[in-house]
Amino acid sequence: MIATLTLRERRIGLGLSILLAVIGLGMAALARQGPMAIHGAMALVLGLGLVFLIGGALYDHPEQGRERLARYYDAPTRLGIIMALFWGVIGMGVGVWVAALMYWPEATPLWPATSFGRLRPVHTSGVIFGFGGNALIATSFYVLQRTSRARLADSVSPWFVLIGYNLFCLWAASGYLMGSTQSKEYAEPEWYADIWLVVVWLTYFALYIRTLARRAEPHIYVANWYYMAFILVVAMLHIVNNLALPVSWTEAESFPVWSGVQDAMIQWWYGHNAVAFLLTAGFLGMLYYFLPVRAQRPIWSYRLSILSFWGIVFFYMWAGSHHLHYTALPYWVQTLGMTFSVMLLVPSWASAGNALATLNGAWHKVRDDATLRFMFVAAVFYGLSTFEGSFMAIRPVNSLSHYTDWTVGHVHSGTLGWVAMIVFGAIYTLVPKLSGRDGMAWPQAVEWHFWLAVAGTLVYVVSLWNAGITQGLMWRAYDENGSLSYSFIESVEAMRPYYAARTLGGALFLAGLVICVLNCRATMRAAGSRADSADRPLAAHPAE
Amino acid sequence: MLKLHYNLEKISMGLVGAIIVVASVGGIVEIAPLFTIEETVEIPDDLRPYTPLELAGREIYMREGCYACHSQMIRSLADEIDRYGPYSLAAESAYDHPMLWGSKRTGPDLARLGGKYSDDWHVAHLMDPREVIPVSIMPAYPWLTRSLDRRLLAPGLATLARLGVPYDDAMIENAEADALAQSQPDSDGAAAVQERYGEDVAVRAFDGDPARLTEMDAVVAYLQSLGTLTDAAHARLAEGTR
To answer: The pTM is what?
Structure first.
């Protein structure tokens, strides 16, 4: 990292590190106890670590010349991928563990930090924000530069974004273990972490826009529309949903300004659009770049890209209320949510179809190249999950599926089958390029990973379909006397085989990820210490 | 249309503006009316806010992630009404910052849990669920026997009051004392709690030991308050069946 910076940039970095250490010290000193003090201490340690790292090497490296401006800046992308894999292992590892606890609850150690309820958000935040978010930031830097034929607008802010974002992830995960949570699903971190994320996010947005302004291509490529929608709308959602009044400025406790039904609507407007703009739009950006590049085929239809992009941006924002069917939310809002959820199938399938049609003429590559196959399976699962999502949003279907494990299965069909698969496709494309190689160190391990991932996803999703439909039917079953057939606990008991199977599915998927991590490590190691080995002159790099 | 888009793709801030506008419509149409229409803002006369002890229990409920497996929202479906009681009304969670409607029922819905089981049952169940229900998969919470931290009760009530929950100055001032008194039925403060929060408020040694105020007291007080803050839902259902 440091070798790629100029002396001036190193000095700015040093200043920012000192600032971070001071902020951390301030937080720890003011809070004195509890999660906020520990989080302050974490920021202090991180800041001091960076001070030593940068300060110790301030004059060690030769000064960067102007010729670097003719090369892409990929060092941040490399760190982003490493962090994505790191959080992936943590998030999915915890996921498999909590899945096992549902089958084997006595295994819970009797101390608070490892209780199911505290570990569950570590899993969700770890995979969504840690794994997914880092993968999005890392690939967005890469894609933005290649499609704009421009170097990132500056060399300090990408590091600020990545390090700041991972500090947020660390605060989130460690906070849950200490019991610090707002309890809003997928938005659990407390107020100071939320404010910090806004600062990081605005920097990210500014970097994106400034780099776009330097582009040598007149048109902004479709992948960038999606990345931009991801950045902008996540900011909107995050700010509105997390508006809260701290109990005190020195405590990790706050009350959201929203209450009751308004809070529920805003929460699921946020929750569903975190799915839309983090887990869908961002990864569609990834798909729209890496799939054509890997298949060496242009995107099948430009018009269809426009239609699906604006369809997704417009329709998704209405769909959140389908999480609240038959609840105290006014009926007309539920109906709107259902209607738009069904209409959403059009742009969703337009995207999936566009991706699959792009593979026309490259099917032999799908057969031979596990990396491209990851992306193909991702597009298929994207199509399947969006169909299932629209279906489950229909009111009578939802009456059966809601509150059951079917929903959990649906989410994992999207996150494992679509999000993680496209990330693996992008990683296996990127890591060799960033390491100056033609392919991964162990090409055969990519095959292994592929089949483990596909098998894991199918076992997981199928077992939770069965679980969810069984639960839904048991809850609503009446006997001939007109009384409920089953007590609730009987439905819990009926879940045992399915919970065991889903744990196995998750474990298979995790095993694949571990292979991926080892493979990436071997590939990056082989690249040695050449920090900018992937850099190529921009002129020799026509629009990909 | 295509030509228009062809040109839009060349202007980054144009795209930014268009994304913000197009993405805002749905949220504005669905969310803004909720702050004005009667169905969502009408508050029943008998709705009371949580007592400080119940509120502390609610914070522990959130801290332990109970909401991940238990919903607090009974849908207007026949089997849910038969299983859990009258369907939930918007007004019932009007003072809930945040709402805890939940999204998953690994365990049963808790919206009308209050009064269904004894305090002793709850204590035994939280200490070791499988002691009470052998096939339960709920985790045990033995650490709830530690003392309740009351530092943030008064500032918490004050914060909620600023957000519109009807806590008056006396409630905020006496928050810490009221939390203790609610678990000590024989103390002088017990009557004051009922005076401030209503005759129906349960004043009991929830964990069985009036001498110590524990997190268990708070959680059980909270669980016993669920569904009892107003009679509006029962009244609504009776009206409907008449």
So the answer is: 0.96
